[in-house]
Amino acid sequence: MSNKSLDIIHDEHRALAAMLSGLRGLVASIEAGRLKPDFELMASMIEYIEMVPEKVHHPKEDTYLFARLRERSAEALPVIERLEAEHREGDARIATLRGALEAYRREGEAGLAGFQAALKTYIEHEWQHMNTEEHLIFPLARKHLSAEDWAQIDAAFLANDNPWQGPAGKYAALFTRIVNTAPAPVGLGGG
């Protein structure tokens, strides 16, 4: 049985993974000397990651999916508690990443390694987090939630518009700016 809300979460994970992969590729191209640092572009990519997953995606998981699963499954509690703690730490992780980018901007090439390390840590955490949700929470939700639970959760997720576009296309405009500025293969810009 397919659940619309789990499909939406999976699609949002894929979109986040694409943005993270793009940022990682951009930084690798800078390190290899193929591109010059574009600090505004990298800051925009971090802003997008902050605005969508941290401010829209995670609260939606906490409020709807995790809350209902918490009511239905003691087995899921330790995983939910860990994931919710990670959600609460999201602002601090983004601040660390943003701070490393600012240090790179100030220090020039000497700051690249610090930014790369912060980005690597952030990406590894996000991959682990998404994998935990998809490989532990999704099966537990499918096992323990009722059709009525799913109807309510799906309705909430479907009512939340596309978080990657945001209210009145707010995030879509930021995404378009990133795609138009970033060089291939990340975006359409000329680098």
Report a brief summary of the structure.
The protein contains seven helices and no strands. It is mainly α and 191 residues long. Helix 1 packs across helix 6 (147-159), helix 2 runs antiparallel to helix 3 and helix 3 packs antiparallel against helix 5.
Topology:
Blueprint: H1 4-31, H2 39-72, H3 77-88, H4 90-107, H5 112-144, H6 147-159, H7 170-181
Helix pairs in contact: 1-2, 1-5, 1-6, 2-3, 2-4, 2-6, 2-7, 3-5, 4-5
Pfam families: Hemerythrin
Organism: Thauera phenylacetica B4P
Protein name: Hemerythrin HHE cation binding domain-containing protein
Tell me what the structure shows.
- The protein is an all-alpha fold.
- The chain contains 7 helices and no strands.
- It has helices spanning 4-31, 39-72, 77-88, 90-107, 112-144, 147-159, 170-181.
- Helix 2 (39-72) runs antiparallel to helix 4 (90-107).
- The longest helix is centred in the first third of the chain and has 34 residues, at 39-72.
- The protein is elongated.
- The protein starts with a helix and ends in a 10-residue tail after the last helix.
- The mean pLDDT is 88.
Distance between the termini: 44 Å
How many domains? The number is 1
Please identify the oligomeric state: single chain
| Number of DSSP E strands | 0
Helix content: over 70%
The run of helices and strands is HHHHHHH
Low-pLDDT runs: none
How is the main sheet built? none
Any idea what the radius of gyration is? 18 Å
The 3D shape can be described as: elongated
Please indicate the percent range of residues in DSSP E strands (runs of 2 or more). Answer: under 5%
* Class from helix and strand fractions: mainly alpha
Overall pLDDT confidence: 88
Individual helix count: 7
